[in-house]
Amino acid sequence: MTDTVTDRFLRYVVIDTQSDAKSPSQPSTAKQLTLGRILVEELLEIGITDAHLDEHGYVYATIPANSGKNNVPVICLCAHMDTAPDFSGSNVKPQLIRNYQGGDITLPGDKQRVIRVSEHPELKNQHGNDIITSDGTTLLGADDKAGLAEIVTAAQILLNSPDIKHGAIRILFTPDEEIARGVEKADLKKLGADFGYTLDGETAGTVEDETFSADSVEIAITGVAIHPGFAFGRMENAIRIAGAIVDRLPKDMAPESTQGKQGFIHPTGISGAMEKASISLIIRDFTDEGLTTKETLLEDIVRDVMKSYPGSSYRFTVTQQYRNMKNVLDQNPQVVDNAMEAVRRAGMTPVRGSIRGGTDGSRLSFMGLPCPNIFAGGHAFHSPLEWVSSQDMGKAVDTIIELAKIWEERA
Ligand SMILES: [Zn+2]
Q1: pLDDT per residue over 236-267, tens digit each?
Q2: Range of the structural domain that residue 247 is part of
Q3: Does residue 16 share a domain with residue 116?
Q4: Can you name the residues that pair with 61 across neighbouring β-strands?
Q5: What number is the average pLDDT over the span 274-281?
Q6: Residue 92, domain CATH
Q7: What distance in angstroms lies between residue 254's CA and the mean position of ligand 1's atoms?
Q8: Is 354 helix (H, G, I), strand (E, B) or coil?
Q9: Which of 290, 321, 352 is the last residue of a domain?
Q10: Helix or strand or coil: residue 334?
Q11: Which residues make beta-bridge pairs with 199?
Q12: What is the rounded distance in angstroms from the CA atom of residue 39 to the CA atom of residue 31?
């Protein structure tokens, strides 16, 4: 078996590992276990003797320390095995464009699908690189099979390089990240790591130390149902009430109208009949105050709409989803500092970023494992236009090696 980061990547993407939010099982889809088994085999083959797949679908493995120092923190490298339910991940046919010379990339399986430079400006930094795409009929799965390939490749290099000194490094591959259940059954005690890194970001050089803070809101409306023939002056149709609420949501506070550090209120589901209707929403912001402000604004809208429906009532339920990991990472500044330095030593200019979403790392950070996100090199996640270059994956491998060295050196 060949073992460059690209070889590994191409082996992993053809395995369908799409997760399924509707499935109650763990992992949500059994097909994720197929990749888990392959990863364990490959880790055993490169000499990691404790690599195994547990009953919940997690892969654990240890690169033993080879440093004379006994105070080097144990770091964990984490990536997820599943791909997003948003787009098909079955029968992925990766295309390798060697020595890319610029220009738009038309995907061979569906000529309507074009990766345009105007929409993917990162392509401008890829001249001469080898770019991998899908054929346009599926997603590629660089999110996050690039991360898996980079970690396994870095592990092999570390194992074969006794001169590179490092502490113990734990590997954790998770299922079901895309459906927000990626760390639900992760055993942090067994993992025994002090700090972690997910390899699940995009552009080369980026280290992300912020995620959204996230709540969900459920608005349950009870109207006044009555036969339409006798409805005059009495009916209060819950469907109309729900519609009025959605209509009043601020249009400048939507995912499609916000960016950077702005948060949003986003309806994700609506269902109902005359008697009862419900609206599901997600609220996102980088600060807790921002979340509260948006939730107050939302409930004010509901209350105001309900004024026209005196016989009706509503229930407004807020559920916490996850919190901005910066709250935790700021208390452990060396975790991000070391990652920034590793990027620099791997020959890039580090860029600190924030994620308009969550990662396994944001959950892990609050479970006691501070865990920023390092680039894995992929772009246009969750879409048939997803792409990654071999060279950027190579840079991620270099970054991991430098990171291992830095933790040892600074212990
Ligand atoms: Zn991901």
Answers
A1: 999 999 999 999 999 999 999 999 999 999 99
A2: 213-321
A3: yes
A4: 171
A5: 97
A6: 3.40.630.10
A7: 22
A8: strand
A9: 321
A10: helix
A11: 374
A12: 13
Choosing from 16, 144, 177, 360, the catalytic residue is: 177
Q: Which residues surround ligand 1, an ion (CB under 5 A)?
A: 143-144, 200
The CATH number that applies at residue 253 is 3.30.70.360
Q: How far is the CA of 316 from the centre of ligand 1 (A)?
A: 31
Query: Which residue in the list 82, 215, 285, 408 is annotated as catalytic?
Result: 82
User: 153 has which bridge partners?
Assistant: none
Q: Which of 270, 296, 321 is the last residue of a domain?
A: 321
**Is position 210 annotated as part of the catalytic site?**
no
Taking the whole predicted model, whether its pTM rises above 0.90 is answered as no
Q: How many residues does the chain have?
A: 411
C-alpha 113 to ligand 1 mean position (Å): 22
Lowest mean pLDDT across 53-62, 101-110, 177-186: 177-186
Output the CA 132–ligand 1 centroid distance in Å: 17
Residue 175: cis peptide before it, omega within 30 degrees of 0: no
pLDDT given for residue 26 in this prediction: 95
Asked if residue 322 has pLDDT above 90, the reply is no
Helix extents (H) in 277-386 = 288-306, 326-329, 333-345, 360-366
Cα within 13 Å of Cα(252), Cβ side? 0
- Helix 390-409, helix 5-13: angle, nearest 10: 120
Distance 61 CA to ligand 1 centre (A): 20
Q: What is the DSSP string of 212-240?
A: -EEEEEEEEEE-B---GGG-TTT-B-HHH
Q: Who's near 190: CB < 8 A, 6+ residues apart?
A: 60
Burial of 246 (0-12, 13-18, 19+ CB in 10 A): middle
Based on the residue annotation, tell me whether 119 is a catalytic residue of this protein.
Answer: no
